[in-house]
Design goal:
The chain is mainly beta. It is 7% helix and 25% strand. The chain has a 5-stranded mixed beta sheet, with helices on one face.
Amino acid sequence: MAVSGPQAQFHRIAEHDRAPVSFTIDGAPATALEGDTLLTALLTNGRVLRRHEFGGEARAGFCVMGACQDCWVMLGDGMRARACTTPVVDGMAVIVAADTAHDG
């Protein structure tokens, strides 16, 4: 199951009956639930998408519907994906900037 420790930004409080999905974030193993978006998977695993380029604050998506440009992430195959609209799949490798891999 996804991390829900002090660093997690999202905490799953219901709906735990979907199959687990294994993937990696910057090479580290992580889990999500089948049907989760990458954004949900990243935030339940205690990650941020990036840091604000002007102030350094953690960013976690903006519109959450694929209309803005705030949640692009790189995948292990070199492709870019919108974290808010892309479902996480088993074996997926997600790469976020080294300075945003952990919130803190």
